[in-house]
Amino acid sequence: MQKSSSLDSASVVWRDDTPVSTAFDDMYFNVNEGLAESEHVFLNGNDLNDRFASLTTPHFTIAETGFGTGLNFLAARRLWLQQAPEEARLHFISVEKFPLQKADLQKALASWPELNDGAVQLTESYPSLTPGFHRLSFDGGRVQLTLMLMDAIEAYQQLSAQVDAWFLDGFAPSKNPDMWNDKLFQQMARLSHTGTTLSTFTAAGFVRRGLQQVGFSISKVPGFGRKREMVTAHFAENSASAPNPAPWFAHARPQHTPAEVVIIGAGLAGCSTAYALAQKGIKVHIVEQHAEVALEGSGNRQGALYAKLPVSHNAQGQLHLSGLHYSNRMLNRLDPQRTLWSDCGLLQLATNEKEANRQQRMLDKTIFGADILHSVDAQQASDLIGSPTPYSGVFMPDGGWVDPRALCRRFISHPLIRVSTNTRINALKQQDNVWHLHTPDGQVITTRCVVVCNAAQAKQIPQCSHLPVKPIRGQTSVTQNTVKAPAINTVVCGDGYISPPLDEQYCFGATFDLHNLNLDVRQVDHHDNLSKLSAVLPALAKTIADTPLEGRAAYRCSTGDYLPIVGPAPDYDAFVSDYAKLRVDRKWNFSDTPARMHSGLYLNIGHGSKGLITGPICGEVIAASILGEPFPLEKSVLDAINPARFIIKQLIRKAI
Questions:
Q1: pLDDT tens by residue, 556-585
Q2: Cys-Cys crosslink for 171: which of 24, 357, 539, 596, Cβ 3.0 to 4.6 Å?
Q3: C-alpha pair distances (Å), 328 with each of 264, 270, 385, 402
């Protein structure tokens, strides 16, 4: 029996239109006074009306300790849209260990018709109940919700952000003592700065003392309704701060907002990064060596929205799942008519015993619910596809396909993005915090901020020459003429992949060649692609084999650990000098040795064949790093994709 969800969702009973948690025997809100209480305790308690109206920074961050029905979020969103400058962005971060099912969420929010426009957006984008960070976008990007579905303490340990106001909410301390403790307060202090405010409905003594111990200055003020007192607070300093055990993975707070960011490379990574920045009001200049965008690895006719999920939880699986959900939501907003993509689902077939065993172990141990993936036998697989296959597999309802070139063109149509084609960068030099990008014909482009997104060619830039990236040749095959065969209904992956036809033409493949880097289209590779297709869909392959084939070959950019390289560019020589005495027993204390980076230089490369699910969310990571906004991924994932990881691994190997 498949689990319907990978998290324990909230168990709710309804009493007079009021949702009550059976686990905590506490109500989520009072239907008659819930919104007024939220406004009194959290909006007024943090003085948000005046702070929003007088805002001089480009973004503001609220963090909350219990999402519940989303009432506090929707109230804050409404006030933000009423009071904040139109160009500013609200980041609302919340955690929920026992999230509501969508049906309960919709029923709860129906109590507040004045919040309906936000409630509709929330329920439409409400994520599958899987552990991890979920980034949702509202109101054309003016409001961003990062919903962390996990334990509160674990979630805030994984968060990288700077919080301006805290909503310390949740079920009463007497009924949910696991959340209200010093470990949570320490994380709140870590994420706060001078001027951060806090409000909570409780005035319990141990809560006040715990907050004071980590640096909050406490005030007791009148509570709401029959509650005599509540607490507000201001953060002064963190008296309980802990040293950073891995400073080389830290993202430094930016000193200024760049007037313009230059991006090298106009594939999926570059265009995704440009779009993420432009959506936040930053001008972007993309320089591309080819005559058009997306002519290399991002130039295939169709690519799969495909997450490689692991048997056991790891950073790669979390990145892939977060990226799949992020890309799916982004495409829904960007192209609701499905002109450049399809959410037709994806079927991963078990074409050999090894893959069948892996899939079974994954299903036995999985934290993923049936809404993320579920097993199918050969007959069920054939029915899903619409063509017979001899193999069983797992089906991912959120998978699908995308036209990568069309997506890149859609990204760069943003008015804040300009593209210079036929422009190759052959040198990158910095002077007085200004980068000078040199072209072979003597042009020089200057900027304070550069993002390198040109895949394996990044190694030609001296600051990136140490990175272990490699090109891997892949050839896809496309039917030259329309195929008179029934269209398949879903993306099918075996040793290769095939998507449902686009304009009545099939795209399938792809080869994987580590040694031959010639980009000529080869007939032998067409035969290889057809052979793989014949193994999983013999009837369809027989029809396609009688039609002329076209194709294209391109390089994927891969890394040694099959994770992308995303984040600030480390200064290799400085890292080696600063951390040369690194020891695996961790007796050396490096917490006071901040990592030295190339200021204003960032990397977003190495996405391999998964750029459609990792490129967009990693573009958001780069934008967050440049602008000092909250990150959309857990710290463990950020560390796993950090460009500095290879230098640290090298130093550890030497220390062993």
A1: 999 989 999 999 999 999 999 888 877 665
A2: 24
A3: 26, 19, 21, 10
